[in-house]
Amino acid sequence: MAGIHILAVVALLPMFWSWQAVTSLAVLYWVTACLGVTIGYHRLLCHRSFRLPQWLERFFATCGALSCQHGPIDWVGLHRHHHKFSDTDADHHNSNRGFWWSHMGWMFEEIPAMGAVPRFSADLAKDPYYRWLNNNFLLLQLPLAGLLFLIGSLTGAGGWALVLWGIPLRLVLVYHVTWLVNSATHCWGEAVHESGDKSRNNPWVAALTFGEGWHNNHHAFPHSAKHGLEPGQIDLTWQHIRLMRALGLAKQVRLPAG
């Protein structure tokens, strides 16, 4: 974790700056944070808010694995565990223990909830591709690094510049933005619904996370494919799902009753 943050700082040195590097960061941020974590891991695999053809579901899961936040089986299992025990002593990122604990501190100690993962994500463990992805998600960064280096070399932007912006800097941004959903949206914002925990709707986290910041809505209606339920609550992830539904790809799209 220290190494990836140090490399993210190195990426910001003037010698590595270029518009191609910025573009690689922006595209991969969307691919991993939106398509991967938000659509793939969270709303699709965790909550089954909608259904997709197997090939497309696996594509989104692979985008999620590129975020380096565990493979799909572990990520889904831990998240389902969080929903069951949200903000109690059993919750591995219990926000009652403070902002920094829920943001990242919990990851540096033993996580008892990992023992419950096989039970909470047994449905995904039946899929051999998800088992492979769960065990090998870190390896996906190697072909990505090779591709970025090649593109950077061919475009004159510098191979290492695109690698640094597209992998360590992007990973650090995606990490902290994702973790804000565990921390900031359990500290600051508005609680419109009684959800039994400290979840809040936070507009600036929603802006960074493609709609995940409407967290109180999500904890009140966890299986809803749409998190921005009120006028003005922009939910870009929902717009992606709407598009897939219009194209006939997304089926059984779930929304709050009424």
Report on the structure:
By secondary structure, the chain is mainly α. Helices cover 57% and strands 0% of the residues. It has 13 helices and no strands. α3 (54-65) packs parallel to α8 (128-136). The termini are far apart.
The termini sit apart by 44 Å
Query: Can you summarize the main beta sheet?
Result: none
Shape: globular
**Number of helix segments?**
13
The overall average pLDDT, rounded, is 97
Helix content: 55-70%
Number of strands: 0
Question: What's the helix-strand series?
Answer: HHHHHHHHHHHHH
What structural category arises from helix and sheet content?
A: mainly alpha
Task: Tell me what portion of residues adopts beta-strand conformation.
Answer: under 5%
**Global Rg:** 18 Å
List segments where confidence is low: pLDDT < 50 over at least 5 consecutive residues.
Answer: none
Chain-wise SSE layout:
Elements: H1 2-11, H2 19-46, H3 54-65, H4 72-84, H5 99-103, H6 117-120, H7 122-125, H8 128-136, H9 141-155, H10 159-182, H11 203-208, H12 215-220, H13 236-246
Supply database-style keywords:
258 residues; mainly alpha
Structure summary:
This protein has 258 residues and is an all-alpha fold. Helix content is 57%, strand content 0%.
